[in-house]
Amino acid sequence: MQNKEVISLSADVSDHSKRIHNKGMRREALPRIRHPEPPRVLAGDCAVNVSLRLASPVIRLLDGLLSAQECDDLIAQAVPRLQRSVVIANSGRTQVDRGRTSESVCFETGETALIQRLEERIAALLRVPVHHGEPLQVTRYLAGQQYQAHYDWFDPDNAGYEAMTMRGGQRVASLVMYLNTPEMGGGTNFPNIGLTFTPIRGSALYFAYKAGEQASWHAGMPVLKGEKWIATKWLRERSLDASGN
Ligand SMILES: O=C(O)CCC(=O)C(=O)O
Ligand SMILES: [Fe+2]
Fold this sequence. Notes:
Layout: H1 4-22, E1 40-43, E2 46-54, E3 58-63, H2 68-78, E4 83-84, E5 87-88, E6 94-95, E7 103-106, H3 113-126, E8 137-141, E9 147-150, H4 161-165, E10 171-178, E11 184-185, E12 188-190, E13 195-197, E14 204-208, E15 218-220, E16 223-225, E17 228-236
Antiparallel strand pairs: 1-2, 2-3, 3-14, 4-7, 5-6, 7-8, 8-17, 9-15, 10-14, 10-17, 11-16, 12-13, 12-15
This protein binds 2-oxoglutaric acid and fe (ii) ion.
The site of 2-oxoglutaric acid (AKG) has 9 residues, from strand 10, strand 15 and strand 17.
């Protein structure tokens, strides 16, 4: 079975439950993300082809997660609200950074009918409640813009770690959805494993990780010609909703 991944994730979950238990808090059963498995996964209202599967680090390439119309509509909803992208600094605060030169919009969970539909689709795809997802972020890179190599997980050694993880806990996976096909450049590159994914409209890159996992170091490479549009959903180990739903 494919299940080094499952075993290591279970280990995470039980460590986490122990931590909660030791603090004398209510023990909660943590839903586990399901990594999409080839050849095809039903994701609510659509079927997604899993065209690439890497066991370590956990990476999946998903074809047909969004229709062309959905990509165009999401871009249209983002255009009027774009602002310079930020990163979460070690302090836990968000700030503009020279390494991330794009513009983005952060939509509230369920903000529009389209966003709600996509969030429900992602939840079905990964079998994880909607509220384990951070608000959807839509990003536009113009020619020359990029997101230099980084980890999406929060470093437990950072001063801001507690603040960043107080609600929702650690990030455990990322879903980068490609909303267009850039004319040239703009691939998502994993330098430590020598892989670059080509953005193709409607497809998505899913990768899961644990804190400290260096293979998940990745970059949005500079766009060389045209524009690149993505929507990113970062997934947390617990619900971000104050009511715990
Ligand atoms: O632009 C890309 O290809 C990668 C984006 C990314 O790393 C992120 O949104 O966290
Ligand atoms: Fe990232």
